[in-house]
Amino acid sequence: MTASQDNISAPGVQEAFEKVILAANRIILGKEGTIRLALSCMLAQGHLLIEDQPGVGKTTLANVLARLLGLSLQRIQFTSDLLPADILGVSVYNRESESFSFHPGPIFTQVVLADEVNRATPRAQSALLEAMEEQQVTIEGETRALPEPFFVIATQNPSNQVGTFPLPESQLDRFMMRLQLGYPDGKAERELLKGRDRRELLAETSAVITAAKLRDIQAQVKSVYVADALLDYLQNLLDFSRASPDYLGGLSPRSGLAILHCAQAWSLLHGHEHVLPEDIQAVLPSIIGHRLRLAQESTVNVGDAAADTLIRQVPIP
Length: 317
Prior knowledge:
By secondary structure, the protein is α/β, with parallel strands linked by helices. The strands form 3 sheets. A 5-stranded parallel sheet has the order 2-5-8-1-9. Strands 3-4 form a two-stranded antiparallel ribbon. It has 15 helices and 9 strands. It is globular and about 70 Å long. The relative contact order is 0.16. The N terminus is likely disordered. The longest helix has 17 residues.
């Protein structure tokens, strides 16, 4: 192993994130697996889409992650009358100086919570594209850098609800992961009903690690060792999706990179010395579910169904 790999496998990194997970579990009850996936996405420097019914904790999860990771957060409520300038900012004329001054919008923060992103029109949704891809925005001909680290965590209501505008494929592809929280189990819901208000607990939540420490760990993630045999396995998964008649188009190279980097982050979170096939399989459903379309309509979750098929059909080298 190289020195960087020894650094990655040091117990301190895993211990720090176990504290993050423990603190998040006190507020988001019974969803440890989802929290671990969300953290893997952020460690892999990806953007996160949380899709589910209203009232299951999507916005709360985004707020919890930002607080525990020591990141600044701005919330944008997406509505049908939202304009790109409401997100990016606008130049205002100053009579005294006889010049325009730029007033930055809420996107100039470390975590942008795009709440109910599919309730805005495609024009407003598209304001996020450059920021998500290049960590910068171009406004009135001038390019402005965004803070580091930078994440978009978007929540989305099911597309069959009134007043929603489906996200186009180009927008969906910018999200490294799509997660669903689902309803809590009986034990977690009873604790939720009997416990304190989640907003009170959230107000008492403080950072477990700093933004600077998070950037250091992000830099280490891509150095987690990946054997050639694992890369063979990943490529075989991609090739199977492209050749299968079950899907309308296969997984793109960007999808392959997302799987690789999230698997490295998942491996790091769980204290593995190198990426295992199980690490790829753990993150696969959340990465491919919003990228693959079934050739025939199905009520089965695309991510779970597609991942299950790939895992069963593609052997581990």
